[in-house]
Amino acid sequence: VIDIRKLTAQTGKFTFDPGYTSTASCESQITFIDGGEGTLLYRGYPIEQLAENTDFIETAYLLLEGELPTSEQCAEFRNNITYHTMVHEHFNKFFDGFRRDAHPMAIMCGAVGALSAFYHDSTDINDPQARKVAVHRMIAKMPTIAAMAYKYTVGQPFVYPRNDLGYTENFLNMCFSVPAEDYEINKTLADALDKIFILHMDHEQNASTSTVRLAGSSGANPFACIAAGIACLWGPAHGGANEAALNMLMEIGSVDKIPEYIGRAKDKSDPFRLMGFGHRVYKNYDPRAKVMQKASHEVLDAVGISDPLLDVAKELERIALEDEYFVEKKLYPNIDFYSGITLRAMGFPPSMFTPLFALARTVGWIAQWREMLEDPNQKIGRPRQIYTGAAKRDFVPMNQR
Ligand code: ACO
């Protein structure tokens, strides 16, 4: 057995903090969360006010530049993003290498990583102009790539970006427009999706953002860093929770089966957890979940459907919030609890929920990546470990084992 005290004396002292529950990895001016109060601020502005009063482009500018844009700044930024929405024509062929039934997140991990093979001219991280172009390219091309991933998996032809449309309208058009059929963009749906994107844009040092920063700390190019973030986001404990939450609501199916699932969530011998409940930082209601619940109603009204899963969700929330186990552990619905119902009503299959999250979070990832590079204290991320393996021993030849 290794003597840890002797080892730390040799290697210097360090903290042991599994899951980084109380370790700050960086300084940042982008996003503030007060988990006890249930507050989320982007550059000081409450998320509720931004979701109500701004659009995707305006909030993206705020996160990147630190201040709300003037109308001229906003128009210029909108123009820059619109200019970069296309992907290289050869990029289309890249998709043919994926299986028809690939998960869109699997496609996105590969396709976004491949951007560095197409856009060499914005991979020099030491050139501020190249960094700026990389930021614009990343934000502009994500909807195109996410829509292509969707079209590929449903076997429909890709739809090219339309620069006469707004950011979110263009994305809806690329996803749902089919040849020889008019697709009419529903303004309520486009506004609700825009709001959903704003809610997902940044969330300080979550697992995927930390992954982007860690990848970027070695000097890796921005496209490779975002691909790393996408891979991390895919997990069901993180961005994959929206898909998992909807699957869980479908499995529960009716209000009378809720007590059985609440019982399972509390049973420590059962690995089942209520998906869409709990958060590492929020020990109060997730402020994004409240906006999302309202958006759910707006979308369901706009499409004129009454989804029985919304009744299951509301009743599940009501019962869980009164249950001693959930109250004691401060487990409240998070943003993912209502987002699945909303996105489903818009026509997205569950497999597209996490790609939509990735699209929005790209703004936060790239803002944090740039902030990290501009930090004079920036160093390569290199955590330490507590070694618990075998003590030093001599090699044993195979015939003596
Ligand atoms: N259902 C039932 N019990 C839960 C749940 C849940 N959803 N979440 C946490 N708990 C319990 C744990 O079993 C644990 O109980 P214990 O103290 O008796 O062992 C306690 O609450 C603390 O849980 P941890 O896993 O230690 O908390 P942590 O902060 O590490 O995890 C997490 C947070 C991963 C979000 C967790 O709550 C979870 O798995 N939730 C479901 C998945 C989900 O909704 N993820 C989305 C997160 S938001 C986002 O990424 C956008």
UniProtKB/TrEMBL annotation:
One GO location term (cellular component): cytoplasm
Pathway listed: Carbohydrate metabolism; tricarboxylic acid cycle; isocitrate from oxaloacetate: step 1/2
Record-linked PROSITE patterns: CITRATE_SYNTHASE
GO MF annotation list: citrate synthase activity
Catalytic activity: oxaloacetate + acetyl-CoA + H2O = citrate + CoA + H(+)
GO terms, biological process: tricarboxylic acid cycle
Active site: H279, D336
UniProt keyword Ribosomal protein present: no
Record key words, sorted: Acyltransferase, Transferase, Tricarboxylic acid cycle
Domain of life: Bacteria
Family, as annotated: Belongs to the citrate synthase family.
NCBIfam families (UniProt xref): cit_synth_I (TIGR01798), PRK05614.1 (NF004126)
Name of the protein this chain belongs to: Citrate synthase
